[in-house]
Recover the amino acids of this structure.
């Protein structure tokens, strides 16, 4: 576990060639303050805070920190939901005399341990997940780095992007977050999603990745 | 200029009914067998229930279905309850696959399938058309962008047919007129003159026999037999009565065989039966391959590969070389004993399963969109074939790089752990019981297996490797069964670099590339056990190369 905690493990892969730094594109739409897009812990971001910078800058970004809260809410909610059903069921069974008290209480004890453990993981995991989820966009494509234990870096050239979606679930909407899904002609990577993006950022990324520069002859 | 509205052949309802009923034949038969009491009364009822609605639906569909050609698109109107109008731009059409079985031939018609790059269902299935209509269809849809020859892409790799149905399947292949249907259509065509294709590979019978010996397709026949037997309840017979009859009627010199007697005899008999079974399996396998791949021919016609094979089921497909996503050559131990290998490829496009024309076509193909380029070929000619098919990958310039130097030790350690943990656990459990096991007994198994593991791991690591040329990435792996795969940079979709927790401990990573139409089971470009820095370099390079090229469907 201590390996996981160590953020130094994931040193960013150097760009393929000298990054063609995207000329400071002035975004069309009013840009959210950058600290919204980037967690404060991101050093690069502090330098740029307050400036309207394009997100297509060939640098690593983290997704919106509110996604941690969102993931916690969703995770804890589902843990609660999946705990309530067996609890109620067994309690009724015990109350009606179908389940011996000895069995019931040992089940209960095991259940409580499991429940507490899931609560801890459900609270801690989104943070770890967020820490290890990064994306980088430049003119040539997107690179997504993700995974806490099994870590993967997925590189998607813009020329291979078939289309992109921005989707928002009800809970995401209340947080102003969205999921960007990039579709390629591949198989395993037929659709690659990046969730926890600020909605405006997701839309900007989508617009950037639109394969409009490609003749749509497929 | 829009053409007139075209309709299907007047006899289409027959084929549509047949298709919808075909899928129900087996359930009906099973029901019949299951209900042994007076099945005939129900048979008529059942067949009415099945055929009636199918017949009505077919008639309706024939009345509604029509299509026309505009300047840019093929427009198809269809749908009994929900009206559908489908616009298929000509330049999206990759292939028109045709199917013809003896009934089709009798009426001089074909079923046509319009394929586009979209995976899954074919864009349109036209059941059935006259030969003239097919020629017109092909001239409109495929003639546009490919002037000169009408030959265009066969979208699917898995063009085939159920061996039992004796269909003839054709792709558009005006260049090659060595099958009945192609010749028939060519007669009705006012198409362009065909170029002369060059034959890259033609398998004689002897090779197919070898293929049957190497591969183990005999089990297919056995499985089919068992299925048949279990359906017909043939097991419920008085086998002892057979045995008695056999013993009584057999000539005297065989009595020692049939007499229930000595143990040696029984063992001999058992062994003999087993050998017979194995020999039969191989025989079935040989027959299966000879029938299925009879006269396998691989031809190259400009940019297209044309593959044709089959005795009853003549299968023919056309694959534009640029649509090949991945090429694999593999050689199992048996292959290498015979000095042979095989070559297969993956294409993007329709991957199908299920019923209907698509299912029929897919059924004969391998899994997913994988297809033989050569089911069997001399080992040294395999590379020559790849070189011929894809000269741009510079096979000769390949310099194999090994995996990380510590890979062997790591795999070895992992295997030993995987072996020791269950053994240790089993020993611990056994020591709790009264079975007298001393600690030494637990060492027998590892002592026997460890050397094997060592040989396997060192062999595997020695043979595994990767290579990057100017245009493609290569990966090879396997020890007893060896495989080499190649993916050209322009067909790389995404590049994946992964680190498992174990990888991180050893400062290693793996690199994989994703391609269109990649099957789940096949050999892929997935290079494990690389030094982290090397893996980064490779993924960077692959990404840079992929983005510098353009993906063509």
């Amino acid at each position: 576990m201590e390996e996981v905690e160590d953020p130094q493990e994931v040193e960013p892969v150097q760009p393929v060639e000298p990054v063609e730094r995207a000329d400071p594109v002035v975004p069309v739409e009013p840009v959210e303050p950058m600290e919204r897009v980037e967690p404060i812990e991101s050093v690069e971001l502090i330098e740029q805070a307050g400036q309207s910078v394009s997100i297509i800058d060939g640098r690593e970004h983290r997704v919106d920190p509110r996604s941690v809260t969102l993931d916690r809410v969703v995770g804890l909610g589902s843990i609660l939901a999946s705990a309530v059903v067996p609890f109620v069921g067994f309690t009724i069974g015990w109350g009606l005399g179908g389940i011996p008290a000895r069995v019931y209480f040992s089940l209960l004890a095991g259940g409580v341990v499991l429940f507490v453990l899931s609560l801890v993981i459900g609270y801690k995991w989104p943070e770890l997940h967020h820490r290890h989820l990064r994306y980088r966009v430049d003119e040539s494509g997107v690179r997504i780095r993700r995974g806490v234990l099994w870590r993967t870096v997925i590189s998607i050239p813009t020329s291979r992007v078939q289309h992109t979606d921005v989707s928002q679930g009800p809970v995401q909407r209340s947080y102003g977050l969205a999921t960007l899904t990039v579709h390629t002609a591949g198989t395993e990577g037929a659709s690659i999603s990046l969730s926890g993006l600020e909605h405006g950022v997701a839309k900007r990324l989508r617009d950037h990745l639109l394969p409009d520069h490609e003749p749509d002859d497929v | 200029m829009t053409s007139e509205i075209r309709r299907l052949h007047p006899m289409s309802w027959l084929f549509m009914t047949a298709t919808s009923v075909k899928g129900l034949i087996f359930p009906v038969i099973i029901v019949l067998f299951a209900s042994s009491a007076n099945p005939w009364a129900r048979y008529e009822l059942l067949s009415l229930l099945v055929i009636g609605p199918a017949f009505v639906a077919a008639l309706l569909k024939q009345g509604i279905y029509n299509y026309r050609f505009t300047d840019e698109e093929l427009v198809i109107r269809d749908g009994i309850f929900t009206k559908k109008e489908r616009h298929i731009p000509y330049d999206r059409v990759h292939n028109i696959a045709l199917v013809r079985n003896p009934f089709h031939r009798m009426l001089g018609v074909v079923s046509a399938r319009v394929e586009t790059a979209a995976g899954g269902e074919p864009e349109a299935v036209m059941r059935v058309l006259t030969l003239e209509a097919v020629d017109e269809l092909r001239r409109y849809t495929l003639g546009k962008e490919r002037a000169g020859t009408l030959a265009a892409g066969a979208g699917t790799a898995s063009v085939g047919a159920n061996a039992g149905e004796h269909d003839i399947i054709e792709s558009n292949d005006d260049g090659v007129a060595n099958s009945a249907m192609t010749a028939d259509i060519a007669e009705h065509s006012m198409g362009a003159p065909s170029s002369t294709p060059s034959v890259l590979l033609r398998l004689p019978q002897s090779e197919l026999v070898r293929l049957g010996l190497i591969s183990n397709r005999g089990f297919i026949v056995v499985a089919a037999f068992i299925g048949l037997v279990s359906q017909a309840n043939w097991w419920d017979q008085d086998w002892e009565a057979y045995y008695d009859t056999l013993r009584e009627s057999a000539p005297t010199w065989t009595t020692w065989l049939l007499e229930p007697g000595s143990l040696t005899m029984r063992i001999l008999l058992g062994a003999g039966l087993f050998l017979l079974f194995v020999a039969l399996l191989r025989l079935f396998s040989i027959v299966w391959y000879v029938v299925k791949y009879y006269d396998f021919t691989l031809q190259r016609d400009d940019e297209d590969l044309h593959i044709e094979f089959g005795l009853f089921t003549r299968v023919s497909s056309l694959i534009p070389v640029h649509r090949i996503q991945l090429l694999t050559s593999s050689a199992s131990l048996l292959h290498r004993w015979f000095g042979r290998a095989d070559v297969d490829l993956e294409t993007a496009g329709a991957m199908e399963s299920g019923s209907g024309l698509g299912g029929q076509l897919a059924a004969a193909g391998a899994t997913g969109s994988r297809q033989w380029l050569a089911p069997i070929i001399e080992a040294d000619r395999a590379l020559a074939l790849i070189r011929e098919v894809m000269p741009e990958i510079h096979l000769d310039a390949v310099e194999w790089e090994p995996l990380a130097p510590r890979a062997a030790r790591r795999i070895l350690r992992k295997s030993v752990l995987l072996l020791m943990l269950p053994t240790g656990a089993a020993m611990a459990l056994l020591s709790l019981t009264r079975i007298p096991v001393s600690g030494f007994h637990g060492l027998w198994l590892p002592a026997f297996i460890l050397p094997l593991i060592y040989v396997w791991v060192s062999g595997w690591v020695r043979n595994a490797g990767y290579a990057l040329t100017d245009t493609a990435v290569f990966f090879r792996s396997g020890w007893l069964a060896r495989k080499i795969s190649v993916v050209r940079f322009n067909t790389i979709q995404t590049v994946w670099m992964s680190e498992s927790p174990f990888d991180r401990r050893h400062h290693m990573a793996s690199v994989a590339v994703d391609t269109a139409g990649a099957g789940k089971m096949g050999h892929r470009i997935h290079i494990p056990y690389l030094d982290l820095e090397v893996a980064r370099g490779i993924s960077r390079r692959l990404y840079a190369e992929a983005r510098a090229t353009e993906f063509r469907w």
Notes: Residues 99 and 169 of chain B are 4 Å apart (CA to CA).
